[in-house]
Amino acid sequence: MKRQLLLLSLLSFSLWSCEKDKAPQPDSSTPPKETPKVNFELSFTPAFETTSQFELIVSKVDGTVLLDTLLAASAKHSLQVASEDDKFNVSTITRNSSNLQPEYYLIRTFLQVNPNNWIINESLEYTKNYYQVDSEVPSNMRFTNLPKNFGGFGFMSTKAGILSAGTSSASRDIAIQYNRIVPSTQTLLLLFDLGKYIYAEVETDNAVVDFAEAGELTRHNFVKPQGLDLTFFNLMGHRTKGNFLNPLQVYNTIKAKTSPLLINPITDDIMYPAGLFEDYELTASFKDKDQNEYFYYKFLQELPSDLSFIKKPDYTVANNGLKDIKVSTGAEKPTHYAFTFHSSDRKILDASWIVYGPATIESINAQDGHLEKMKNNLLKNKDLSTLKLSNSQWVKASGYTYHDYLKYTFNPDAMKRKELKEYIRYTSYY
Q1: Which of 43, 62, 100, 240 is most deeply packed, by most CB within 10 A?
Q2: Cα–Cα distance between 291 and 228 in angstroms, integer?
Q3: What is the pLDDT of residues 386-396, one digit of tens each?
Q4: Is 147:253 a contact under the CB 8 Å cutoff?
Q5: pLDDT tens by residue, 106-128
Q6: What are the strands, taking DSSP E only, across 73-226?
């Protein structure tokens, strides 16, 4: 009996061993799964002409650095990172030198973006005017036969630059010296006390225009936001609809109200030659009692009457230091936020850091999540703890998502077409 049990046990073990030997083995020839590659192209236009290179850092949204490299500025680059993601945190860093400051660092971080085909403009202008200029020529212009005591005036020309003006009470003339762009320059003389304007397109170095050419200025006033103080209105004009090159400044509150020869204070919001231009760009700036700024831009054909909708957005920023910045907003969401940090001690580090993020951002760990990972190249051995939150911005661009807005901002061709028609920017200071 014992012998039969022993034989049965040996047989069972033998069968089990055979089955074990026949178990499927992993195919060693199958390579491990590779992480997908993400390719993108970008170029970078520095804020300072002397900047020759910039540092580019591409990270996962969780902060893991995928790429940190120095690249030539003002050049196109083809780059690749290994990632399954399609959104990244992208930072650019430049070290800038000038006669006034030996080292100034400018850092920009864009959260949750895909930078493919971006032409990054370090100045990040929301709107920009474009001019077609063959050359600039010092020129003279004389306005003659003005009424006696014509009072305050303002002179504007295409791509306004340095100019000087002289008057003669005896001859009742205004003489202007200015830089004229070739082949043609638009000029506009506003006579505030008379309520008149003289517009002329100039193609000569010495032009004379008689007061008989003057037209009537239109006085325009807005319903302004309650509790806000006006900083300025500015109006740019485009003579031909859809032609966005060579705009002309039509009116600026500060220039008008500080005209040295004014007889009577200007009480109207804007004085302009209605009907002379087909497209306009209006900008308005206000401040509240806490010196927070409200900036409004609109591309339009007719000036609006009501700006009372400009108000403080329903959002708060809890500034608890670099490791804990919390953001909350109400029902109306912005297109994006922007957070600006400045050095509290420029002797230790002179730097500015601006962070851009979508409306879904709720908190930022600036120190551990970003700054500590920026010390490999240009910021190596730099003390970044001096950076403090200086201001935050709530920006609403009509018809744009966060990603569409950045794609537009970093596309010069779209900027030239003035595709962004309206936005509000609120800036809160700390």
Answers
A1: 43
A2: 10
A3: 999 999 999 99
A4: no
A5: 999 999 999 999 999 998 777 78
A6: 76-82, 88-96, 104-113, 118-121, 135-144, 153-157, 163-168, 173-182, 185-191, 196-202, 206-210, 215-216, 218-220
The four Cα atoms 48, 52, 57, 58 give a dihedral, to 10 degrees, of 90
Token duo for residue 215: 């037209």
Rounded CA-CA distance 197/207 in Å is 16
pLDDT per residue as tens digits for the range 38-50: 999 999 999 888 8
C-alpha 213/C-alpha 152 separation (Å) is 18
- Please tell me the number of Cα atoms within 13 Å of 260 on its side-chain side: 3
Domain residue ranges in the chain: 38-123+339-400, 135-300
Residue type, 345: D
Distances (CA, A) of 325 to 65, 106, 362: 21, 21, 8
Confidence of residue 324 (pLDDT cuts 50, 70, 90): confident
Question: What token pair was written down for 283?
Answer: 């900008």
- Token pair of 14, please? 């033998």
